Fold these 4 entries.
Entry 1:
Amino acid sequence: MDQNYSTSFTVDQSPEEVFAAINNARGWWSEDLEGRTDELGEFKHHYRDIHRCTIEITELIPGKKVVWHVTDNYFNFVTDKSEWKDTDIVFEIAKKGDQTEVRFTHVGLVPTYECYSVCSDSWGTYINGSLRSLITEGKGHPNQSERIVNKHGLENS
């Protein structure tokens, strides 16, 4: 059985609009990104001393697919510091009738991971909430980490 974290939603916008929104990671994930998120190459994410990672964008197929490869990662709240490292974050875009389906899969983010509950909850919030509203309303809700971290009580650990 496929254990990777995955979630999907459909919107009325075109695959091209969805593709553009995904590549605007500052608009839905984090404003604290260094580097370009709309071309092949590397960018970095950090949230306080809690989470930082280096991501390489390895695939950009307009209107169809975006793949991010995590080359380096650090969480201050997990024992196994290799979690997320060498995993792939995949966005697949497909036409479903008059709508566009967005399927998000974090390949390698599995339930045995210590960070799984926090990370899956976090991705759920960012993908189904923030990314979706960036696509449908033109405005996302980046930097939700604060709320997610507090909900999981990680700030004091």
Entry 2:
Amino acid sequence: MKTKQEKGDELMASNYIRFDWAMKRLSRNKANFRILEGFLSILFNEAITILDIFETKRNADDDICERFRINLLIQNTKGQQILVEIQNNNEYAYYQRIIFGLSKTLTEYINRGEGYDKVRKVYSVNIVYFSLGNGKDIVYHGKTEFRGIHEGDILELTPFQKQTFKVSQVSQLYPEYYILKVNDFNQVAKSPLEEWIYYLNTGDIPDNATAPGLHEARERLKLDRMKKEELAAYYRHLDNIVILRDNIYTERAEGREEERYSIARNLKQLGASEEVIIKATGLSSEEINKL
């Protein structure tokens, strides 16, 4: 088990600024668009061009995990202009926060009186640096479909709607969601997306990483480019990350321990022998007798 100091040293060993901190810097300079374009191109699996960044919101009072919300206007390979919202938050009701942020993005970029055909396609990209739900994967993608409750068929667009909206499926008109659980990635990166997730998690960019955007990140997100005051604030941020991770690990450990005791109690109530309970839970005879 690594100490808090060892975890902090690992975070600070990188020569590059972590992406969760760099997000606010990326929105200030169009020269940094290539970094975000590379990340989104890998995530969406098509070439992406950023046309504009509308706003960045931050809650400066939140020291443990600063809150960012970046809204981008992008263009894909089909020439379609799409809104993308990138969130980096730490909240108990995060699933609901995704809906709120995306709804706000939708309403902010349609003028009053415009027809519903002017509603833009929106992607919500959520880079999660904390434990969110239960799942084995590190990247989750969600979209909306309408399925018949009797026939089980998917509701389709009419030929006229397909021609008018330039899409082939109803789900392509609705928001789509991406959740990247970057803290759960603990393996060797074998694909461009995993190279990005490795950087998102560790703040480090391996020399052999070739994913789009990471070359620009190497050039523009170096620690030695930061001013003294900004560097001090950044190191405080890294310290807070260690605190946050320790809290998460502690909660998980406590949860596992409580689960073992709960299983032991149930087995004991069912009349299982002490030997069976020990094998099932790993608890000692003394611990079982105290239940």
Entry 3:
Amino acid sequence: MGSGQSRGTPLSLTLLAAAATADFFHYDALGLSPVALDLGFFQLRWYSLAYIAGILIGWWYLLKLIAQPGAPMTRHHADDMVFYATLGILIGGRLAYVFFYQPEILRNPIDILKLWQGGMSFHGGAIGVMIGILLLARKHGLNWLRVHDYVACCVPFGLFFGRLANFVNGELWGRETDVPWAMIFPDPNAGGVPRHPSQLYEAALEGIVLFAVLAFFFWRTKARYEPGKLVGIFLLGYGLSRFIVEFFREPDVQLGTLSWGLTMGQTLTLPMILGGLYLIGTAKGRRQRVEPIAGRDSVA
């Protein structure tokens, strides 16, 4: 029996399985590495660069948004927002991952700080950013919900780069499939079978599509003058995107599909969908004359 053949598996079935995967994409053939720069004593990973790129490009875009009439904050506030958002992403994202996905990490609490080993939850990061915005708004007397509308328009950048980094890392791959674009990932847990490249599905839906939808409502409608509408659109758009993609993404191995038939990702997304619908449905009732904190004009 060859070393690559499972015990008791006929050679004919082994060869058949190998032939069945020959027409699919192989992740190894892409030559990707999780490490962007390796100096021996220091490694810079694409995952870290994804966070940096998402924050910096999001900050740049936020400055474009607040230059428009009726902005809820100034450049100074936007600069502070980067600091608050970064802390919210790191602290909220890591803690939520530990509590909801890997609670065994709590047995050795120091491991919570090992962010370079991966393990972040978007849902937790979103809550962390919400808290950061609230603190900033209270400190400077700003409208929390309107600030949140503007920040929500910038989040898809981070989602896009983050999902691309997941793909480069060869992690969070999808369920088994025979679609023509299926990919075989080298992770032993992937089983050497073709799978959905669900990281790319999420990058497209949560990054490109969600950004386009929010940009349309910001630049082409009066949504930014109805407090909560843009953040509601974001919550609904992200929630639906994540809920759908979870049908193609392999559930976390330590959790699987939960007893009520949904994955943890889908379960945590349901409050976002409901909250988004509420904020969109009630936004017109919060419409008021908007005096500019930044930008050029007041807006009736």
Entry 4:
Amino acid sequence: MSVKRKRNLSATIALLPTWFAAVVVFIGTMAWSIRLSFTNSTLFPSSTYVGFAQYSKLFASAKWLASLQNVLIFGVLYVAGCLVLGFLLAAAIDRKIRFESALRTIFLYPYAMSFVVTGLIWQWMLNPTLGIQASVRSLGWESFALDWVVNRDMAIYALVLAGVWQGAGLVMVIALAGIRGIEAEQWKAARIDGIPVWRIYVSIILPQLGPALAAAGMLLAMGVIKTYDIVVAMTNGGPGNATEVPAKFIMDNLFGRQNLGLATAGATVLVLGVVIAVAPFRYAMHMRNQAKGGAR
């Protein structure tokens, strides 16, 4: 046996546990969950098939429909806010400002926190009786109001605010790495032509960061679909259904109402959401690689 074949065989053997875990643990449990979504399972799994009855019940639920609307609003604003703020932070730090290392650490630190910690911090800050509102009113501004977490119309935006505070640091790091990788000659040429700094970032730098920002956006979008911790920590889905999200709906039906069939139906819809979120990015990357290969 050649040395190359021996190395390939060794690599294959080393990867067998990973492949086993991927096939059995991930794909196997996913298939099992999809199967249960077509049964009348409640507290325990059942083999009685009911077709699409669980899905009909799912999309007839006002709470589920509200959760889809909420996660869409949260997702669009959260991803857009993180991308914009992260790019602005990266552009600011790229100007070789003082204390650059300290500022990078400060802006990235929230991302190191769990969503539970982030939710608790912002739940306290936006609590009208304990947080910012109470502090400002104690200084004499009695009309000041910042009660987003208990306001049905503003609660979802409180989640967006907390999420952007945590996630913008990730985009900043990715964008800053991309900016630092751009050739210095482009900067010199732009300065010689007298192009304003803001125009350089918008017209020259930003287009070249497309793949990096797309990757960051995909990571953020994947996090949106499974949003749960921050909602429970900040609002627990309230007021009413104002901040209900699909993951919380699934967990409530799985553990609170012992409705395994409905919970797995919701989980299956979320899996399809992940596929829909990832597929365009993967297709764009495939076409980009093909274009590069054709150019060669």
